[in-house]
């Protein structure tokens, strides 16, 4: 396992669309051979998520999660390709788990592109002020602030977040696992989170 690098895992993820843990396992199983690892994932039905990216998702479910004695509530819409998959336990459990995850982590959006421009600008200005306060030279301010902004996206965007039930994977990894299991394209369309006392 020690000869499996992060770069190899990343390359296999990009080629296969499989989750990080599946890619690590496949590379480990195949002695670091990229082509064999792809075949290994395909045989297991995992390396197919990326191939389904272009398909339409017009079926799905809306699931809700109520937490803390009614103080926080979440509704999510998750879409898939067929009514058959929409009715499966795997699909419904995924939607419920995403609703619970949103209740716990309060993401700003699903992907970085969903974060409103004014929120990004405000965060960037705060980071710049923090960096200047630390006494860093002017020419480093922009770069450090950009790094902090990327960290903000990782922590604040649903797909980039560590999945609360299994922190060693991201929500995107979890989604790809369910895509591999169901054999269909699945998308998290939208969510709404309500919290008593919050605007």
TrEMBL record:
GO terms for molecular function: translation elongation factor activity. Residues 82-85 are annotated as: Involved in Mg(2+) ion dislocation from EF-Tu. Keywords: Cytoplasm, Elongation factor, Protein biosynthesis. PROSITE patterns: EF_TS_2. Its main location: cytoplasm. It comes from the Bacteria. The keyword Cytoplasm applies. Residues 51-197 form the Translation elongation factor EFTs/EF1B dimerisation domain. One of its GO terms (cellular component) is cytoplasm. Pfam families: EF_TS. It is found in: Cytoplasm. The keyword Phosphoprotein does not apply. Belongs to the EF-Ts family. Associates with the EF-Tu.GDP complex and induces the exchange of GDP to GTP. It remains bound to the aminoacyl-tRNA.EF-Tu.GTP complex up to the GTP hydrolysis stage on the ribosome. This is Elongation factor Ts.
